């Protein structure tokens, strides 16, 4: 006659019967812990985000298109949602199985009590045992509720992590503003390029007009040159050779003129192409403006969605705070229950001492024999149970060592602890709180961790105390049953039926309240899940739209690059044409200079010719005059000769007379001297 206990679950002692079902609760608890571990292992964010990162890498490498990536992500999120639903259903089924197993155990105990307990068994110890059982059942309910709340908190944390990651992936206001600024810059650059091209087209038109004027001048000069050449051909042979050279140069000018006309046609074609490109650029500008307007509208919508998400996040935080408050209330209730348990234990010890004093002398031999039998049975069952548990643990350890899960679980545990710390720090950083509030928050988190550790230690102590209580209650029940078997059977059955009815009523009330709370929480959870799915779908649509816009921008950038390359090519052609035109102008200037030189030489020759004519005419006049003068001179010479001869004769005669006179004078002087 004894009681068995596992994981804080009490079972009523049954006289002269073998007890088997307590392993079920341990199995349920282990299933629950394994289920939570599986949830934590399977729902690790590293595997989740590694799959998304792998898909995005394939998209960046170009192996998958944006549409395929979006479809794969949508399917992945659907599968993850289904998996979470399956896990929730599995956990609910496990809880239902646990409840049914506890109900079956309680019914089996009540049946065994009805069969084996004596009639009229109603003592203080039985009432205390009822109170202990009620307290233990409440404690179990509180622990189950605490586990459920922890599971819901973990699931909410996972969803919060998912939402945070999705929120971090979403384009922020700064990114949208930067994109808008880049688009405005690109539009301004396109406008500046359009203005530049319009200026270049104007310059080209001006150059074309200048070339036309130059060609007209060249044609005029050609006509003048041809007329002058005809005049020069008629004038002299030397000038004919020069005219032949000028004709050659005019042929060259004609060729250059043809080239200029060809360039003119090419420039006109290019001008038409440039006009078409300008039209395309204007259409692209209009498209960019429309896309910028769309992006502004989308940014406004995203801001609204972000505001809604923030409000939802605040509501979830409020709900989490309420759950934490409830958890603190539950811990307070648990401490009160622990205090009551201590008082009950003290009273039990006092009662046990009193019973031991009364029955020590009377039933020593019977107690020893039955105690030995019970100890043997308990030892056998404990040995069986320990063997089973040891074999199961040994098999699990071997399987884990073979698969290498022991190190993986430790690594995952450390990684999860590290992730929880990081998330706490992230929450503290994201929540815009003051330093005092952050310090209080950290202190409260540390206190919560310490309280969890204290809870675990108290659970261990509670298990040990319950074991002691069960051992002592076994001894007490053995003595009380042997002492009052015949007297208290009928009363005991009636009291047990009443207590069971009270327990059943309490269980029904607690079940109804828990079901109502679960329904409310399920509705709330479904609403949050729907909002989360809507947010994820909107985020996916926005990502798809952003990718499409980025592709359009990339295409437009490529088109702009192509247009720039065409512009560069056309600028090179225009530069070549300008160089050719400059060369033609230089050749034209050279020809003009040569033509001016030739015209100057011709004019000089004509002037020289006229001068020669004038000089010849002058010389002819001079010759005629000289001939006339010669004739006059001849006549004058004849006359002069005649005069000279006459004068010579006269001179001779006078000379003779002078001689005569000199002789006379000499004679006279000589005569006078004498």
UniProtKB/TrEMBL annotation:
<dbReference type="GO" id="GO:0005856">
    <property type="term" value="C:cytoskeleton"/>
</dbReference>
<feature type="coiled-coil region">
    <location>
        <begin position="208"/>
        <end position="298"/>
    </location>
</feature>
<protein>
    <submittedName>
        <fullName>Uncharacterized protein</fullName>
    </submittedName>
</protein>
<feature type="coiled-coil region">
    <location>
        <begin position="125"/>
        <end position="173"/>
    </location>
</feature>
<feature type="compositionally biased region" description="Basic and acidic residues">
    <location>
        <begin position="32"/>
        <end position="42"/>
    </location>
</feature>
<feature type="region of interest" description="Disordered">
    <location>
        <begin position="22"/>
        <end position="42"/>
    </location>
</feature>
<feature type="coiled-coil region">
    <location>
        <begin position="327"/>
        <end position="361"/>
    </location>
</feature>
<feature type="coiled-coil region">
    <location>
        <begin position="497"/>
        <end position="566"/>
    </location>
</feature>
<keyword id="KW-0175">Coiled coil</keyword>
<feature type="coiled-coil region">
    <location>
        <begin position="441"/>
        <end position="468"/>
    </location>
</feature>
């Amino acid at each position: 006659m004894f009681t068995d206990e596992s994981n804080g679950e009490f079972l009523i002692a049954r006289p002269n019967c073998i007890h088997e079902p307590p392993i079920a609760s341990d199995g349920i608890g282990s299933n629950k812990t394994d289920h939570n571990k599986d949830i934590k292992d399977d729902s690790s964010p590293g595997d989740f985000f590694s799959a998304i990162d792998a898909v995005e890498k394939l998209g960046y490498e170009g192996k998958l298109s944006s549409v395929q990536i979006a479809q794969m992500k949508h399917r992945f999120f659907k599968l993850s949602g289904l998996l979470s639903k399956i896990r929730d259903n599995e956990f609910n089924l496990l809880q239902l199985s646990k409840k049914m197993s506890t109900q079956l155990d309680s019914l089996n105990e009540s049946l065994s009590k009805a069969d084996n307990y004596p009639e009229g068994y109603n003592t203080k110890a039985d009432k205390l045992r009822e109170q202990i059982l009620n307290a233990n059942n409440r404690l179990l309910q509180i622990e189950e509720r605490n586990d459920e709340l922890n599971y819901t908190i973990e699931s909410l944390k996972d969803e919060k992590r998912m939402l945070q990651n999705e929120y971090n992936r979403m384009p922020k206001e700064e990114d949208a503003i930067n994109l808008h600024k880049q688009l405005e810059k690109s539009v301004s650059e396109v406008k500046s390029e359009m203005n530049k091209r319009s200026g270049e087209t104007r310059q080209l038109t001006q150059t074309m007009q200048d070339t036309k004027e130059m060609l007209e001048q060249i044609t005029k000069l050609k006509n003048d040159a041809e007329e002058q050449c005809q005049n020069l051909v008629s004038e002299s042979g030397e000038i004919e050779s020069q005219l032949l050279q000028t004709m050659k140069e005019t042929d060259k000018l004609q060729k250059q003129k043809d080239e200029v006309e060809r360039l003119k046609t090419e420039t006109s074609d290019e001008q038409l192409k440039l006009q078409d490109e300008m039209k395309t650029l204007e259409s692209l500008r209009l498209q960019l403006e429309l896309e910028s307007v769309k992006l502004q509208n989308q940014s406004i919508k995203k801001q609204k969605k972000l505001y809604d998400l923030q409000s939802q996040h605040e509501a979830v935080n409020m709900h989490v705070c309420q759950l934490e408050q409830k958890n603190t209330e539950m811990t307070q209730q648990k401490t009160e229950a622990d205090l009551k348990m201590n008082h009950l234990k003290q009273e039990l010890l006092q009662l046990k001492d009193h019973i031991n004093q009364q029955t020590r002398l009377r039933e020593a031999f019977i107690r020893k024999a039955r105690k030995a039998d019970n100890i043997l049975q308990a030892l056998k069952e404990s040995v069986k149970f320990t063997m089973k548990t040891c074999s199961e643990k040994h098999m699990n350890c071997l399987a884990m060592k073979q698969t290498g899960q022991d190190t993986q679980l430790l690594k995952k545990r450390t990684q999860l602890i590290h992730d929880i710390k990081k998330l706490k720090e992230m929450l503290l950083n994201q929540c815009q709180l003051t330093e005092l509030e952050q310090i209080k928050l950290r202190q409260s988190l540390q206190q919560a961790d310490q309280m969890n550790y204290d809870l675990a230690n108290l659970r261990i102590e509670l298990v040990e105390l319950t074991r002691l209580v069960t051992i002592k209650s076994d001894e007490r029940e053995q003595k009380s049953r042997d002492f009052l078997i015949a007297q208290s059977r009928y009363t005991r059955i009636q009291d047990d039926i009443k207590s069971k009815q009270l327990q059943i009523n309490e269980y029904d009330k607690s079940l109804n309240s828990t079901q109502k709370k679960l329904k409310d929480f399920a509705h709330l959870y479904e609403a949050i899940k729907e909002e989360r799915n809507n947010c994820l779908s909107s985020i996916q649509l926005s990502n798809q739209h952003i990718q499409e816009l980025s592709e359009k921008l990339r295409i437009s950038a490529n088109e702009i690059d192509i247009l720039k390359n065409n512009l560069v090519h056309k600028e090179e052609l225009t530069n070549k044409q300008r160089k050719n035109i400059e060369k033609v102008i230089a050749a034209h200037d050279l020809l003009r200079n040569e033509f001016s030189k030739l015209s100057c030489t011709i004019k000089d020759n004509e002037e020289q010719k006229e001068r020669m004519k004038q000089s010849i005419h002058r010389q002819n006049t001079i010759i005629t005059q000289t001939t006339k003068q010669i004739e006059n001179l001849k006549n004058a010479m004849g006359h002069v000769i005649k005069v000279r001869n006459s004068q010579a004769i006269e001179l001779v005669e006078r000379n003779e007379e002078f001689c005569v006179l000199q002789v006379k004078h000499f004679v006279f002087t000589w005569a006078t001297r004498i």
